[in-house]
Design brief:
- The structure is a single chain.
- About 40% of the residues lie in helices and about 15% in strands.
- The protein has about 350 residues and is an alpha/beta fold.
- It folds into two domains: about 180 residues, 3-Layer(aba) Sandwich (Rossmann fold), CATH 3.40.50; about 150 residues, Glycogen Phosphorylase B (Rossmann fold).
- Helix 5 links the parallel strand 4 and strand 5.
């Protein structure tokens, strides 16, 4: 069923929002866009302040502009991606127009992290016709609240995440052990222990690390800031071992990075957690660790056993591809549960485990 979808979210180059829009277009949807990035201030501090304290003068324009876009585009469905700026009045206007609304928020508004930017979101989240939820903790919450939801996994972009060219081998892998990402939670301490106590060749790329590493550590172990798109994929390809963690304050069950590493046919060494264990068979499709010592032991072993590493990486890639964690598969399942234009709106409670 082809629908006209107004996709509302931050549409920067290399973002997951743009990847989802491309997936919806591949699914033959007529997608129009509303980019919330244009309402950012030139100062990140001012934008953060606005998100934490979304008083009417600061959010009046995005709300007025969205309603104007709705009148212009006449969508069947408005797909909200992390809606931080919109008011209950705007949502009621959309409801009165008979337009279906979907909330797709991969971040964790209700976990213990307490980002402070969810003030406006928490005023409107019960008003959406359907939510996509990603964490077991949110499944319990949304069920208790009686909200319509579909439980889906984190998803990867098939256009950006794929295996290296045929014939790729250790001769093409110039990095021994790589971590690409932010210095959340235990990661700075963990990686420093791998580097200093265990003397392992770990390379780090990502934002904000320069404040946490000494000048000598930055010189020896930092290789680039935030890696996006082709640069990110090539770092996975060029690394013998790729590390993945969980953001526990987000109540994550699985790391999106773990899926991306695996589907790029990188060797995945991830923190041991039920979500990762459900996705991969340990020792055959990925490897896991529960401590710095176990991680260090497995790094040493697999650096010395490239053939085993290669087999595990290939099996992990195949597992993720066959399991349907890609955007196209999961978004197609979501669209199946959106009423067709002219049909009755979703009645509560509707709860679908995908």
């Amino acid at each position: 069923m082809k629908r006209r979808i107004l996709y509302v979210g931050p549409l920067g180059t290399g973002t997951t929002t743009v990847a989802r829009i491309r997936a919806l277009q591949r699914l033959r949807q007529d997608v129009r866009t509303f980019d919330t990035r244009v309402y950012r201030y030139s100062s990140n501090k001012l934008t953060t302040l606005r998100d934490r304290f979304p008083f009417e003068p600061f959010i009046q324009k995005p709300n007025a502009d969205l309603l104007q876009a709705v009148r212009r585009e006449q969508p069947d469905l408005i797909w909200f991606d992390k809606p931080l700026l919109f008011t209950p009045q705007t949502m009621r206007t959309i409801q009165c127009a008979g337009i279906q609304t979907l909330c797709f928020t991969q971040d964790a508004p209700f976990g213990p992290r307490r980002d402070g930017v969810w003030r406006q979101f928490k005023k409107i989240f019960p008003m959406f016709d359907l939510h996509c939820v990603f964490r077991e903790a949110d499944v319990a919450r949304y069920r208790e609240w009686g909200l319509n939801f579909i439980h889906i996994p984190f998803t990867y972009d098939v256009e950006m995440n794929f295996p290296p060219p045929e014939g790729w081998s250790d001769a093409d892998r110039s990095f021994e052990v790589s971590y690409v990402g932010s210095p959340y939670e235990e990661r700075p301490r963990f990686l420093r222990e791998l580097i200093t106590r265990h003397k392992l060749p770990v390379t780090i790329s990502g934002p904000r690390w320069e404040k946490l590493l000494t000048p000598k550590e930055r010189q020896l172990h930092m290789r680039g800031n935030e890696l996006l798109n082709e640069d990110y994929r090539r770092r996975i390809w060029r690394s013998k071992i790729n590390l993945a963690f969980l953001t526990r304050l987000n109540e994550d069950d699985i790391s999106l990075k773990a899926l991306e590493i695996a589907v790029c046919q990188g060797f995945l060494l991830a923190v041991r957690a039920p979500g990762h264990q459900a996705c991969f068979e340990e020792g055959k499709e990925a490897e896991f660790f529960s401590s710095v010592e176990e991680c260090a032991d497995k790094i040493r072993y697999y650096l010395a056993h490239p053939n085993e590493r290669e087999k595990i990486a290939r099996r992990g890639c195949e597992r993720i591809r066959l399991s349907g964690y890609d955007n196209d598969t999961q978004l197609a399942r979501v669209l199946e549960w959106i009423p067709e234009p002219g049909e009755k709106r979703l009645s509560q409670p509707f709860q679908k485990m995908v």
